[in-house]
Sequence to fold (177 residues):
Amino acid sequence: MKSRKETHKKNHFSTKLKVLITSILFIITVLSSFGMAFANEDIQSLLTNWFTDQREVAIESIESAIMTEKDQQKVALQSYIKEAIQSSEKEIKQFTEEEKKRRVQEIKSHAQTLMNNFEVNNKEEKSQIQSEFDAILKRAMEDLNEVEVETAPETNEDKDNVEETNEEEITKGDDDE
Fold:
């Protein structure tokens, strides 16, 4: 059998254990009742926090998707614009060359038309030159006629007078021209 001391020691230990377990259960019960008392308020704040967190996650996800798509579209747009500019540049060069050829051909055609229709109207110049030649010829004939008339024997004074007269006529002829 056991001694009283051994039995009491064992009881004493078990009593302390019983008190400890009872205290823990009491504390858990009290704390759980407090949790139930604030459950409505905690659920509402919990839901609000959860929705706020979900909204922030969704916004970040949307912003990330938008940024990614924007970058992709920016690259695609830059590529498209570059191709469009190159295509437009080719079209403009081709158009310019065609227009240049067409305009040059029009100028050539117009110049050819002008050359075909060009007539030198020199009737007035011809008639003026003809009248001058006629005047020179007439003067020359008159001079020859005077020489015939003067072939008769003359004195030295008459020869000097004829020479002076001829010189005057020649000078007059030069002045008329």
Remarks:
- Helices lie at 4-37, 39-117, 123-149, 156-176.
- The mean pLDDT is 79.
